[in-house]
Amino acid sequence: MSNTTTASARLGDPTATTLLRFATAGSVDDGKSTLVGRLLHDSKSVLSDQLEAVERVSADRGADAPDLALLTDGLRAEREQGITIDVAYRYFATARRRFILADTPGHVQYTRNMVTGASTADLAVVLVDARNGVIEQTRRHAAVAALLRVPHVVLAVNKMDLVAYDETVFAKIAEEFTAYAGELGVPEITAIPISALAGDNVVEPSSHMDWYGGPTVLEHLETVPVSHDLTSCHARLPVQYVIRPQSAEHPDYRGYAGQIAAGTFRVGESVTVLPSGRTSKIAGIDLLGKAVDVAWTPQSITLLLEDDIDISRGDLIVPSGDTPPTSQDIEATVCHVADTPLAVGQRVLLKHTTRTVKAIVKEIPSRLTLDDLSQHPEPGQLVANDIGRVKVRTAEPLALDAYADSRRTGSFLLIDPADGTTLAAGMAGQAFATPADDGAVPADEEGWDF
Question: What is the DSSP-derived secondary structure letter of residue 201?
Answer without folding.
Answer: T
